[in-house]
Amino acid sequence: MASLTSRSRLLALTAAAVVGLCWAAAAAAAGPLYARPLSARFATPLAPGEPAAAATTPICDFGDFQLVCYAPSHIKDAYNVPTGPQAPTGAGQTIVIVDAFGSDAIQDDLAFFNAHFGIPSGPLDVVCPQTAGCGTPPDPDTAAAWAIETSLDVEYAHAMAPGAKIVLAIASSDEWSDLTATELAMIKKYPGAVISESFGLSEPSPRDAAGIREIAGSFANHLLAWRLGTTVVAAAGDLGAGDGVVDANGKAIPTADYPSSDPLVTGVGGTMGLPYPDGLWSHGRYGGEQTWNESDFGLADGGGPSALFPQPSYQRGLATGSRRMTPDVAFNAAIDGGVQVAVTINGFLGRYVVGGNSAGAPQWAGIIALANELRGRQGKAGIGFANPVLYSIAADRRSTRDFHDITVGDDVLRDPLIDPSLWGIGFSAADGYDPTTGWGTPNVAKLLPDLVSAPTDRGDQPDFRPSRGSNDSRREQSGRPKALEVHGGGHSPRGH
Length: 496
Prior knowledge:
alpha/beta; Rossmann fold; about 25% helix; about 20% strand
């Protein structure tokens, strides 16, 4: 784990942590919307030949600093994922990962990851459904960012559900319209699958007509998924409750991250260890967690009220106001306490320590795949739209065993590189549901039986109704977020 001195060194190495705060003012219709991957990586990669972190000390040594770095086995221990001959593996299920650009080396990266961590191999299909193919990243930083995102998503969906078929669907660019088209193709081709999306954008202003049209297209996709019994899971953002959006004075304002804010999507927030940084995993079992807030690294959990969607039926009765609130659930997202990912960048295969809410979405997708396998053994259809089921379980007293209720921490991004007067507001963890970690993180062995026994419940069809009466003074967003190249690796780009 990094000392105060080494944290300063890390901060100096990782200026990309704050690219999300660097949008310039621009005209509302200046160009297309772009997605950004919601993962963050740190420092020089570990050499491929180095051993995995020891079972009793999950520490990765980078020379002048150390980070807590979990292997898949640590994560499965902490969240009590069933093991043994009768345990589900996701057999017979399909998990679709949607990303932009992808990685030419993903098959090799996954093979190394499996061999290194002792995970059975499984089917991985890579598809580029658009006529433009997989596309070419515009610059090396964007290529590296999406390569890391791709490896993280594929490897940890597979680690959680090694028996499931993984389909990596690659959009030809990171323009929102291309990701929407790719998502639609997968919804049509794989009804009943589980779709994981670890990218996002800040909800556009309700006054931004072009942005609203883009979101409306995605919402139409999710309505189709809702009707077809397909689960969609998405990461909730990495820049605190403001999601990197600022007003005319540069002050962060509450902004939800899309698609996690879509009421037809299960939004996944983030946690970190309690105590930090090594509290999540404790000698083979769960330790403790708090809301993810690594402001020293320029990152914190996303979440809060949507400006585009009213409160859905499954959130009625919660003290969350009249709007859709996100996230719904949570998972480990820490950097110091991150996961080890095998990635090839510029021809070099290494193990990186990766965090961000990107890590939680594919692993929650894997958990749903485990439940769907067990439901299939009983002749039941898959869960489909998961939120009504998850909220029903969590509202029951069983939630005390199915979920780790996160009651410590907040998502105020106290970025040390900007004026404290510009930090804006955030939300605090609390008993039960809260807009930092939703209902909390899973105790998978306890949650699965309730997911299996639950009736399929699509709930009422949600509305897409932008809150046009809001006093939205944000700077408008324009252009592809600029990635900052960081010496020694650094964060993947994720800009606003």
